[in-house]
Structures are given as C-alpha cells and as structure tokens.
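Here is one such protein, fold included:

. . .
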Amino acid sequence: MLKFVKNHMDSISGIEVFPIISLLIFFGFFVILFWWVFTAKKDYINKVSNIPLELDNQNETEL
C-alpha cells in the first residue's frame, strides 16, 4: 500500500513544496503563539483564567 502511494506521489510534479509549506505554517503558528504567551499581560491572563469560575458561581446563584 505504501509503495502505491509513494509511486503515485512521485508522479505529481511540484508536490515536494507542500511539506515545506506545511512545516513553515506549523512553525510560524507556534512562534506567534509563544510570542503572544510571553508578552501577554498578567492582568489579562488572570481575568481570562477566572471566567469559568465566575460562570459556575453565576449558575449556582440562579438555581
């Protein structure tokens, strides 16, 4: 089965570009994500991390 896929992909011209593009997109996404995490303000992180707890408290008071 793998032989069939490999031989079929060898017949497609220009296919060697797609793994490189995928790697660059993957690497770029995680570089941007790490940059955002390290530059995010602590107040924003604390506010966002408490949202699920605030929603639980609101649901309990409504019951």
Q: What stands out?
A: Residues 18-62 form one domain. The chain has four helices and no strands. The mean pLDDT is 82.
